[in-house]
Structures are given as C-alpha cells and as structure tokens.
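hey team, just a heads up i'm posting the complex here instead of the shared drive bc the drive is being weird again. everything in one block, sequence lines first with there labels, then the predicted structure for the whole assembly after. its three chains so it's a bit long, scroll down
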Amino acid sequence: MKDYLPILIVFIFVLGFAVTNIVLSHVIGRRKDTRAKLMPYECGMDPVGSAHQRFSVKFYLVAMLFILFDIEAIFLLPWAVVFRSLITTLSRSFVFIEMMAFIAVLFVGYVYVWKKGLFEWTRG
Amino acid sequence: MEIIHLLFLAFAALAVVAAFNVILQRNPIYSAIGLIVVLCSLAALFLTLNAQFIAAIQIIVYAGAIMVLFVFVIMLLNVREEEARTDRQKYLKLLAVPLFVALLAEVVVVIRYVNATPPAIPNPNTVSDPATSLGTVESLARGMFTDYVLPFEATSVLILMAIVGAMYLARRESPAEVERIEQALAADSAAETGADGSPHA
Amino acid sequence: MSSVLNSIDIQYVLGSLIKIALFWVFIMITVAYMVYAERRVLAVMQNRLGPNRVGWQGLLQPFADLIKFIFKEDIIPLSVNKVLYIVAPVVVLVPAMMVLIVYPFGPRSAPLPGGEMLSNMLNNLGNSLGYDWALDLRHVNLFVTNFNVGLLYIFALTSLGVYGIVIAGWASNSKYSLLGGLRSSAQMISYELALSLSVVAILIPAGTLDLVKIVEGQGGTWFGFIPKWNVLALFPAGIIAFIVYLISAIAETNRVPFDLPEAETELVAGFHTEYSALKFALFFMAEYVNMTTVSVLAAAVFLGGWQGPLVGSYPWLGFVWFIAKVFFFLFLYIWLRGTLPRFRYDQLMNFGWKILLPAALVNIVLAAVLGVIFL
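-- predicted structure starts here --
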C-alpha cells in the first residue's frame, strides 16, 4: 500500500499551493469596487435577464450516455490488461468471443441511439 | 494502530460528515458536492482496504460520471434553494425512523454473526505478482473473465436496457401531451405563487 | 499515538515530498515557458514578433506575467455564489496537478551524481536528530511512485476536473460563463470516452495499467531497428489508437481546433469570464498542466516514454528522451493553434460521438483479432 501514500502527500501539497494562491490574491491585490466591475460581464451592457436558464435536454442525454459507455470502457480496460496472459492459459477464442459478445450487445445500443437521432445535435 | 488504520478512520469520518451535509443542506448544489466528497472518501476507504481497482472505479464511474449528471440536472433545471414549506407527506418522516433502525440492526447482525475470514492482505513491503495478489486489476479481471463470465455478459444486456430507457425518458412528447404538461405546470406555478406570495421568476 | 508515528516511514514520506516538490517545480517551469513559447511561436507563424522585451528575447516574460497576476485586482462580482466561485479554481487545479506523481520521467534506479555524499550527509543529520536513518541515495527512481492502477488514477483525476469547470460556470452567474462551462463539460465527457477506449487497444499488447511497467515493456527493437513502441504494436491498431487518442486528448483539454468552451468571438472567455488575478491564473495553469498530462500519456503509453538509444548505459538520457517526446506534443498544440480554424459545436459533438467513439471501438476489435493471431 506504500506506493499509494504519495497520493495523499501530493494532494496536501497541491491543495496548499492552490489555497495560498487564492489567499495571496485576496491579500495583495488592490480592491476598488465600482458598480460596473461588480456586474456580470455582458459586453458592456447591463445584464439582461437571469443567467440561469433551462437548456436543451440533449446535455442530460449526453451525460447519461456517457455514464453507460464509461461503464463499458471500465469493463474493457481490465479485459485488455489480462488479454495477453489469459490467451496463454485459456483457449484463445474464448477470451476473444466473450468480449466480442459484450461489445456486440452494446453496439446494438449505440446504433439504436444513433437511429433515434441523439447525435444530430442541431435537431431540437 | 498503524497509519493505515488512522487513515481509514479519518476518511470514514469524512464520509459520514459529508453524508450529513448531503441531507442537511437546503441548496441542492451543496448537497451534490457533499455527495461527491462522500464518494471520494469511499474511494479512499477502498484504497486503505487494498481494493485499488475498485477505488479507481469508484471515482471514475460514481464521482466522475454519475455525479456529473446530477450536477448537470441541478444546474440546468435551475433548481432553487429548497424552501421550508409544510411537508405534504408527513408519514414519510415517521417511516424513516423504523427504516433506519432496521438498517442499523442489519449492520449489527452482519458484523456479529457473519464471520467469514477476511482474505489476507498482502504484506505491503514485499513485491508480489500482481496476477495473484489481492485487489489488483489483474486478479479482478482474471476472476471476471473466467469464473464469472455469465454475470459479466449479463451486464451488457443491463447497460443496453439502460440505454433504451434513457432514450425513452427523453423522447419527444406528442403535441397533445405537451399541452397537457404545460397546463399542469402553469397551474402548479400559479398555486405556488399564491402560497408564498413571491413569484418564481 | 506513538505506534502510529512509528508506522510512518518518515524516510519514504520525506523522499516522496522532495521528489514531488522537484517535479512540481519542473512542471511549473514547463508551463510558464510553454505559455511564452506559444506566444513566440504563434507570433512567428503570424509574421510578427511576440513578447521580446522583458529580458533577452523576452525570456523573463513569464515572471513578469506572474508578478502582474499577483498584483491584479481580485474582483468578486456581486451576483456570484461566493463560496463556489472561490472554490472552483482550486477544484480545477488540484486534480490536474495531483497527476504528476505517476509521470514516468525516467527509469528505475538511475545513479544520482553525488548521491553517496548526500546520503551520508542526510544520515548524519538524521542520526544527530535521534533517528536511525540508513538512506541510500546512490540510485534513485526517476518518478515519484508507480502502482497497479496508474493509468486509471490519471483517468479518475481527469474526470474530477470537470467539476471545477461546471462549478465555475454556474457560480459566476453570467451567461457566458454558464454556456462556456456547460459546453466545456459536455465536450470533455464526450471525448473522455474516446480517450479511454483508444488506450484499451494499446493495453492488449502492454498488459498492465502501471505506467512505469508500460514504458519498461517498450524497450528493445523489432528486427534490430524498429523501436518496440506501442504505437507500432499490432500494426495498424496501434497507429489508429494513437490518432484517436491524440484527437480526443486535444478535445479533452479544450484546445484548438476544439476550443469552443472559450471561443472568444462568441463566449468572451468561457467559464472563466468573471475571474481575475491569481484565480484566473489557476485556471490557466490547470489548462497547461492538463496539456502536459495528456502529452506525458502520449509519450509514455504510445511512444515508449523514456526508451531510446543508449538508455541502458546512461539512465539519465531516458529523462532527456522522455522530455523531448513530451515537448514535441506540446509544440504540436501550438502548431495546431497556429494552423487550424475552430469547429462548430454540432460538428464537434458529431465528430466525437459518430466518428471517434466507433473508430475506437472498432479498433479494439481489430487489436483483439491481431492479438489472438500474433501474441
């Protein structure tokens, strides 16, 4: 487990650096507030309406599909790692076919999503 | 007690504190951030238990993918701070108590009566073959792609179902349906504006 | 409590800390001069001079910029969510920089010049403080640490970097910031898929997720003259994987031609529009550190990392090879920026989902077929 200890060390180190920067900027930088400075930037105009509006449902769909394909990638990574050692101990076709079946099923899903038009970003 | 136990306790405490933050915050975005902290400290817990692969997956899938969706939804649906309003479903609060007790009892039972011998954690000071040592990608993958092929293949079908489900959720409603929903929403917002006097712009 | 203290390997902790600090300084200098190089090279490409006033040929420009950042006014607009607004730059920078512990800068146990003297000095110091130290610094590993899930560690931290951007965009409460943050995060998660899937094809010949071991596996040559780099393994699967990786890496770091999140002609500066002074500098740093990280991965996973001629006899030469490869990719970023126009957003999303993702998947199948035949 010793090899993992530097994760904690580097976390503390980098966090310290980042926080120092934030504090430094706050302490050293001169502050002179004016009305225009404290407004959100909108090309020199007074902001119109709220910035928080509703957005296309596609963003959620992209996030959802990302989860699903990410999980697929998570299964593929360990398979690729042991591929070399498994084909010497098991039958070659078994190692190959078990993952091809997995990819094939998900490819059906991918084609379905494509046909449903999710990747047509310009269509509403 | 060794440093690794201390780290375990520290991250466990962090997880619990962050979990309380999730349920006690009124602003949903703070709750979501609390949940991300919970998931990250769980990953750290896995790491102290020598489950390296699971720890990485915990971050990649839960903190890095699923929570992104949560945060997207909260930010983009413009969910506002939850207001202190009278609960419509009071019985849910009462239900929480017995459910919590049941869960607690379950944990106690598991700890007391299930005495499986924990697998020996390899000595960190000796370099061992990753294929045979516990918790590595290699040992996990070997199990998954030899002894547990069927559950693994079943997972692909599960993901496929999820894909179809996601697409169904986002399907385009028929015009009549859209009108019905819009009317319902308008009625709802009118009722809320009347209730607390301030319009939800 | 004392048993806890005893269980901590102080030598190891201190050693890691010193290495982290050294490599961190190296990365910071790289980042600073990357910015300078970008300005100069772009200037040459556009037939102008670029910054050449501060110091000889403008070489002190990064320090002038740093001083400027420190003394700039730290504006916090009134409409922002103050806590999240301040936290966001930290959330972006910390995961970006945490990656440096697995950078494989060079081979294991390279001889350290003056290492014997240094270890004697430190041991004497430790003994005089009452510790029983037996440091041996005659040979050092040219990386901080390596572990079984090194590559996943990088992927995990990259996936956490999204939050800082989303939070910054949302907390700023400005239209440009929100749009930029949203675009940026949707783009990052879309290309993250192609990025991790492209690496899968390479893992089939490499057989490990440990970056140091991946590089070690690429030593030697085929037929005596072709280097055994993964990019050439299982030909042509390695090359396809490399191309897919490179494209998605550039998109993942939001750079030209995929720099839509900060398309200045439409979004001002994207998610960091409302940031100034050192907070802005943190975003800037994180972007360049991320560029370094994907370049490091490209060099280590595909192009043999520190492997190269004469590394066997002179381990420190490995460090030079590695840095040369990384700098090549960093130069590529600048070159692309001087050359290519920007994608349109729908083109960008279509490209990621319709071309790169299936290409990466098909390439995995190809690599598996070739692997079954040849490995």
